[in-house]
Structure prediction request, 395 residues.
Amino acid sequence: MTKRSQIVKGNIDTISAKGKGILKTPNGPVYVPYAAPGDIISAQIIKTAPTYRIGKLKDLYYSSKGRRTPPCPSAGRCGGCQLQHISPEIQRTNKEHWVHEALNQQSLHPTIEAIRFAKELEYRNKIQLSVIHDGESVQLGMNRFHSAMLEPLSDCWVVQPAIRQIIPVIREWITHLGGTWSQVTIRATTDGHCIAIAESPSGEFEIWGDGTLTETMGGLRYRISPHSFFQGNTQLLPELVSTVIGLAGPSLDANGLDLFSGIGLFGLPLAQLSHSVIGVELNTSSAEDAEYNAKTNGIKNYSVQSTDIDSLWPLSNSPQFAVLDPPRTGLSAATIEGLRAARIPRLIYVSCNPQTFARDARLLSDTYTLQTVIPFDMFPNTIHTELVSLLTCKL
Prediction:
């Protein structure tokens, strides 16, 4: 028997932060997709590396109490969801554990509150699908879990109903467009309005729909352009925004920074409670939306700088709080140093990657104390976890 065809058997004690069950063996761990904590399984080794192996689930001898039949028929083939075979309660337990683990690895021990959550299905307001050209026909699909292979899809159970209904329509639209489109993004608002953006490998794009969306939240109207960033789970957004505002502690004599501001999701309601807030956003589309949203909502004490965050330092003013919502890669070294020198009293860090967040919090720890971390299950049935945190400047 070759190493690649080797069969291993054992218990799945836990799942990794990448969504694979961990089967411990004398020769090191074997990571098995679609295994659940408490399962007893056999797995066929399909990849061998110096410190670990990847296995394919072969036999399920004992099914854990946390295992379930996935609600979506594409689960197990489509890589968009990695955890549909696990109950929502066990998913959240593991996500809380991953947050604890990421912080412990950086020797950080803040107060960690219970994870916030809402519906597990039909929550997502955006989906990005690959365009599969099969002769004269066109299919839409997603990569399989940890694979370059594409799985054709005609439905998706985690996106909002308006998107689910319109996927076949968008497939027909792309078919009639012709050309070599590589991906399509479909977005929706809570009132069911949709747009779609088809993109080519060279950067060309076509838009289906009105061109922009408008989402209403907390009494504010937000324009969302096709290439602007907006949080993917609208259901949990009111609680996410109110948590950020509560941690920032705005007051009418306080000035704030809204870094990686996007379309002004956090900055605009904070400006209503502050003396002034400055948003900083490199993405031109998002920055223009933020300016438009401030104007149309009559918020005159919110301004936007369309520039790289790294160019801000050193600051020319002394804000009392700053909200940071960086991409998954986290903060750059220049921004870490800029924040350390600025000594802003309160930092509210919103992150979609607990590992890079924990790294950044440790790098800031000589100047800021990590007080509180609040996880949000913004992406049920996937391995992703959002969090909101408060760091306070040391005296």
In short: The first strand starts at residue 7 and ends at 15. The chain has a mean pLDDT of 94.
